[in-house]
Structure formats: structure tokens, C-alpha cells
């Protein structure tokens, strides 16, 4: 009986070790990028280049975050919410407490942004919802700029507004 | 007759459970980043921990699925699946208790959203299947 359990545990440990070893080997590049927060090697091209998820080379992409999690981050002041839309859209209405960093101006303003917010800051980027890719593009630029923890709120401003959460600017 | 029927039933349960876990594992292996995003939504692990689990857990699911399908080391695979299901259920319950409205991330990454409650129900069924395999294996062992 005791011998049987020992054998079972040994087999379980063996299966787990094999799975972990294969998983680490298979995803070593992804894990390296996730740990260092660096863009993948060879990706010195502009971040606007199209990026597929099933490409040969795995890369760290900003992780998606849901409405409730963004609200919690904001309420607890655990993250800086970054608005990737242009200035006019930001002025017309944005998530209360969000910081404006339009994608089009990111290249010129990232240095100033980095002075205000240290690289340890947890960032949540949003734009105009699921059809808008500015948030993903800006998040990739922020990761490349040395911010290892960047999330994307894919529902963006429309989802936030329709949920009735605090909004600044614009008409109700 | 009863023993034969039980044997067939056990084989069916083993193969179905194996196929479910192989399918779940392969879908996540294809897109580990999306799976990391789903894990991150639970807000349990640190940022890198999400990637680490997303890199390794799908392989464990797929290997356990294969072992169950082929019936080799099936009892060990069933035991691991019991533990995995227990962990999944704790994570889902914690998401429900914290009021998190998230996709369970169990199968298709980025597909239709599966609520935590339906995922919990599914995990109960899968846990029962795995436990039945474990129990049967124990009765057969001397």
C-alpha cells in the first residue's frame, strides 16, 4: 500500500518534471523576454510593423486586462492609466485619473514620461475599444522603453463609460 | 457482466478525460501569451508568474491527456488532473468571491467568454471523472 503510494508520487513527480522541462524549453524566448521586459532580439523595426501571434518568434506582448481589474487598479492607485488616443479625444472625455500619451506623440514624449513614472510603475493602456490598436502599439513601445509590467484595457474608453465609471471631460 | 461493463465505462471515461485535457493543453500551447493574459485576469500571480504558468501548465495538461488516452501511467495522470482541477476550482472560486468578471481561460484563448460558474461546474465533472479513475486503479492494485 505504502509502496504503491510512493510509486504513484514518484510517477507524478516525473510527469510534472518532464512537462515543466518541455514547457520551459519550448517557451524559453518568451520567458526571457517577459523577465527582462525587452523587445525580442532583431525587432529593431518600428513597433507599427504588423505582429502576428503565431509567428515563428514568440514575444512579450502586453497582457489584456478586464474592466473590473482596471477599476480595482485605479481605486487602489496601484497603476497608472495611460490614454493612447489623441489630445482631442482625451479632452472630449477620458477615464478619470488617466494620463494622456497619444501614440502619435509617444516617440517625443516617452523620455518625459519616463522621468515622471519610474520603470517599476504598473501601466494600463487603453484607447477606443476592441477595434482600436493604438493601445497595443503604445504598450509595445512602453515595454520597449523599459516598462516590464504593461497591461492593455481592451474594452477601452467605451466600455468604461458604458459601465458608468468616473469620466472626466466631454458631455455626459 | 457488471465488471466488464465497469471496465468499458472506465476506459471510456479515461479516453474522454484524456481527449479533453489534450485539447485544452494544445490550444494553450499554440498561444501561450493569450493564456498568460487569461491567468493575469485572475490577479493571483505576479506578472512573470503568469508567463511561467502559461509556459508550463499546458504541457502538463497535454501530457496527462496523452497518458490517459494511451492508458500508460494513467493513474498518475489522473492524480495530477485531480490536483490541477482542485487548483482551477480554487482559482475560479476566488475570482467569483472577489467579483471578478473574467473568462476562465480553460480552452479557447480569446474566444467566447466562459463564466466562472459554468467553468466551476465543468471542473466538478472532470474532477469526478479523474477521481473515478483513481479509485478504480486503487481497487485493482494488490
Short characterization:
Chain A is α/β, with parallel strands linked by helices and 172 residues long.
Please tell me about this protein's structure.
The complex is a heterodimer of chains A (172) and B (142). Chain A has 172 residues and is of the alpha/beta class. Chain A is built from seven helices and seven strands. Chain A has a five-stranded parallel sheet with strand order 1-6-5-2-4. A two-stranded antiparallel ribbon of chain A has the order 3-7. The radius of gyration of chain A is 20 Å and the shape is elongated. The N and C termini of chain A lie far apart (70 Å). With 142 residues, chain B is mostly helical. Chain B has one domain. Chain B has helices at 2-30, 32-41, 47-70, 74-97, 116-140. In chain B, α1 packs across α5. The longest helix of chain B has 29 residues, at 2-30. The two termini of chain B are 22 Å apart. In chain B, 43% of the residues are buried. Chains A and B meet through α1, α2, β1 and α3 of A and α2, α3 and α4 of B.
Please name the defining characteristics of this protein.
heterodimer; A: 172 residues; alpha/beta; Oxidized Rhodanese, domain 1; 2 domains; five-stranded parallel beta sheet; two-stranded antiparallel sheet; 7 strands; 12% strand; B: 142 residues; mainly alpha; 5 helices; 79% helix; 0% strand
Amino acid at each position: 500500500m505504502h509502496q504503491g503510494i510512493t510509486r504513484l508520487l514518484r510517477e507524478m513527480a516525473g510527469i510534472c518534471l518532464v512537462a515543466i522541462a518541455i514547457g520551459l524549453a519550448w517557451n524559453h524566448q518568451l520567458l526571457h523576454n517577459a523577465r527582462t521586459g525587452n523587445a525580442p532580439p532583431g525587432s529593431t523595426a518600428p513597433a507599427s510593423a504588423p505582429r502576428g501571434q503565431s509567428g515563428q518568434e514568440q514575444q512579450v506582448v502586453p497582457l489584456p486586462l478586464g474592466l473590473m481589474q482596471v477599476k480595482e487598479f485605479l481605486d487602489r492607485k496601484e497603476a497608472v492609466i495611460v490614454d493612447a488616443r489623441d489630445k482631442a479625444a482625451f479632452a472630449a472625455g477620458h477615464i478619470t485619473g488617466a494620463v494622456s500619451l497619444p501614440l502619435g506623440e509617444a516617440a517625443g514624449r516617452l523620455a518625459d514620461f519616463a522621468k515622471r513614472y519610474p520603470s517599476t510603475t504598473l501601466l494600463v493602456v487603453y484607447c477606443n475599444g476592441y477595434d482600436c490598436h493604438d493601445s497595443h502599439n503604445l504598450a509595445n513601445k512602453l515595454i520597449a522603453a523599459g516598462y516590464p509590467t504593461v497591461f492593455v484595457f481592451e474594452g477601452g474608453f467605451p466600455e468604461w463609460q458604458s459601465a458608468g465609471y468616473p469620466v472626466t471631460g466631454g458631455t455626459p | 457482466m457488471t465488471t466488464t461493463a465497469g471496465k468499458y465505462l472506465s476506459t471510456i471515461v479515461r479516453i474522454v478525460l484524456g481527449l479533453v485535457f489534450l485539447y485544452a493543453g494544445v490550444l494553450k500551447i499554440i498561444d501561450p501569451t493569450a493564456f498568460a493574459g487569461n491567468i493575469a485576469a485572475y490577479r493571483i500571480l505576479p506578472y512573470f508568474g503568469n508567463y511561467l504558468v502559461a509556459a508550463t501548465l499546458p504541457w502538463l495538461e497535454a501530457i496527462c491527456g496523452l497518458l490517459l488516452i494511451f492508458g500508460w501511467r494513467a493513474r498518475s495522470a489522473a492524480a495530477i488532473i485531480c490536483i490541477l482541477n482542485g487548483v482551477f476550482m480554487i482559482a475560479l472560486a476566488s475570482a467569483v468571491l472577489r467579483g471578478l468578471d473574467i473568462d476562465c481561460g480553460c480552452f479557447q484563448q480569446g474566444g467566447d467568454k466562459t463564466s466562472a460558474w459554468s467553468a466551476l461546474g465543468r471542473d466538478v465533472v472532470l474532477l469526478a471523472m479523474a477521481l473515478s479513475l483513481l479509485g478504480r486503479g486503487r481497487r485493482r492494485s494488490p
